[in-house]
Amino acid sequence: MNQAAFDCLCVALNPAIDHSLSIPHFAAGKVNRVAAEESRPAGKGVNVGVAVARAGFRVAVSGFLGEDNAGSFESLFRKYAVVDECVRIAGATRTGIKITDPANQTTTDINFPGAEPTADDVAGLRERIANLDARWAVLAGSLPPGVPVSIYAELTADLMRRGTRVAVDTSDRPLQFAIAAKPSVIKPNIHELEAITGRSLKTRADVLKTARELVQGGIECVIVSMGAEGALFVTAAEALLAVPPQLLIRTTVGAGDAMVAGWIAASLRGLPLEKAARLATAFSLAAIDVSPRDEPRSYFPCIQITQP
Fold this sequence. Notes:
The chain contains nine helices and 15 strands. 33% of the residues lie in helices and 26% in strands. The model has no long low-confidence stretch (mean pLDDT 93). The protein is of the alpha/beta class. The protein has two domains: 1-169, 3-Layer(aba) Sandwich (UDP-N-acetylmuramoyl-L-alanine:D-glutamate ligase), CATH 3.40.1190; 184-308, Ribokinase (UDP-N-acetylmuramoyl-L-alanine:D-glutamate ligase, 3-Layer(aba) Sandwich), CATH 3.40.1190. Strands 1, 4, 5, 6, 9, 10, 11, 12, 13, 14 and 15 form an eleven-stranded mixed beta sheet that branches. A four-stranded mixed beta sheet has the order 3-2-7-8.
């Protein structure tokens, strides 16, 4: 491939405006009082794209945005010099409600369905992506109503034929289909890995065995996030466990997206697995820390890298 126009293309098919509520000691079925609230444009592909752009790389985001409330996304993209290649569709981009309980360190997600793109919208998106040249592509998030479950697999195959490396961060059937197209990287959490394999992964050895099987099937790297226990990074040559320090957590929202962004940044810098795992974990820590540090690398001394 000649010099790519972008370092990273992020595809966000079902973005959302996240309305986050902080409710200490949140209790379902009871009256709860909101301590703080925030509303921001988000969605996995959007989050990854902005984080990679903030790390100094050339980023484009494509996907679907509802015409009725695209303004907040447009402002976000301008702020971080992200190139907006999104297709506008009729209606409004969905809202996602996230209830964070800082006292119990939990987050409750309430996800609305997205606006449904037409067949012409989907065709327009495919055409846009076909005309974008990037070193990496990240296909992330759920699918809006009416979009074929095979779309990530089809986009993966198309992009990789053109020499673009592809990372997929989704779940359930879209992830199962995408795996068959053998993307460069996948990043399920442990529950998503259980769901697509039909296995109960009770031990780290179970997770490692399953990740190795996926690598043997043709995926370059499998990253499995396991919450406070850390994340496994598995390739054909080696496997590493990155364990984060204990922190006061502001929120767990966006931790996985930040990990993907850190991995992409590491790959674009040509880092080996150990340094890539450390940087990916550092990005994730910066996303959840109650007192986030400006430079993710400042978390490096706190991150333990071991053989699983």
